[in-house]
């Protein structure tokens, strides 16, 4: 999605719409992504430290409401931020991301009763499944965008080489 966002920003030539797009995608929608990554990492650190304590059962204790919110809610909000970026910049709805958020919300109450490491493994499996679904649903768009970006880069390099030969 990053190449697609970059290309959309690159092709938005009018200064005001370009500034608004950059502001929305790289500030308002990017900030929740970064915050959720940090929040998730801190929660994961504490969770794994707790699971490693000698008196903890082998797979950990049940997660409970707080940790399920930190882990599953954090991933869900991250995926929502990705979907919002796609909607704002690309004008497309990424249904697999939204479906993944719904699945996380449905599975979270059950996962809250699971041991910590089992719930974490389930979250990882759900994330992998969501990313596979997202990749498969793109139907070649990612490959096309990468090809166009490479063609653009090669054309720019050819033009730079031509200019250098004439002026240097």
Question: What would your notes on this structure say?
Answer:
- With 168 residues, the protein is mainly alpha-helical.
- It folds into two domains: 136 residues, no CATH class; 29 residues.
- It is built from seven helices and no strands.
- α1 runs parallel beside α4, α3 runs antiparallel to α4 and α5 runs antiparallel to α6.
- It is elongated.
- The two termini are 38 Å apart.
- It comes from Micromonospora sicca.
- This is Low temperature requirement protein A.
- Keywords: Membrane, Transmembrane, Transmembrane helix.
- InterPro entries: Low_temperature_requirement_A.
Concise account of the structure shown:
This protein is mainly α.
Which regions contain 5 or more consecutive residues with pLDDT less than 50? none
The SS-based structural class is mainly alpha
Helix and strand run? HHHHHHH
Mean pLDDT rating: 86
Number of domains: 2
Which shape, going by the Cα principal axes?
Answer: elongated
Instruction: Summarize the main sheet.
Output: none
